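Hey, can you fold this one?
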Amino acid sequence: MRALLQRVVHGSVRIDGRTVGEISGGLVILLGVGAGDTSAEAGVLADKIANLRIFSDADGKFNLSALDVGAEMLVVSQFTLYADCRRGRRPGFTEAARPEVAAPLVEDFIARLRSMGFRVAAGEFQADMLVEIHNTGPVTIWLDTAETKKG
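Sure. Predicted structure:
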């Protein structure tokens, strides 16, 4: 699984003019599911995000986690995080999981965050969404469970 985290003061998702998910502060998580991903990757990634110290303490240092600050989360599924642009001019997406595999894993990931006590909003799987991200810092972090296995 891959996640692009953006620390935000506001995030929302609109579909056809209606707001389907919104947070006032915390993390917008753009989430991609890879072809070989399982529930294990969803658990590893949710735990990593919950405990990653990317929020500032009173001294302005990154010492606080999403758990420490009670961050809200907005999860937006995004298969394009698996775009392969190495050849040609059109990205390939063969490394992304098929929708019937990806959708339940996105829901699993969201459920894991909720079980940790987070308020989690979400977009709609396979919808054409308008995502509003008010990145603060700016803080943007890339996570890939394939990389966490290496080190």
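The chain has a mean pLDDT of 96. Let me know if you want another pass with a different chain boundary.
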